[in-house]
Write a structure and sequence with these properties.
There is one protein chain. By secondary structure, this protein is mostly helical. The protein is globular. It is built from five helices and no strands.
Amino acid sequence: MKKIIAILGIVSASFAYTNCAMCHNGGMGVKLDKFPVSEIKEDLLDFKTGKKYHSMMTFVKNMSDKEIDEAAKKYGKKD
């Protein structure tokens, strides 16, 4: 059972970055389209490196810098 829970956690974390809107534009989290891309990217990098503590650390820790950049551009404020 512990293995199943661990696997589900890894799968959900790896899926989360491709569908940030699932939480952030679905009412559970802050709407990301109100923030500049640079701010989102900075926050994600801070969560990844542990500079900022937040539940997002779970989702961000396995993201590459490229994935962070892509997610910030996809969901950030459009100029």
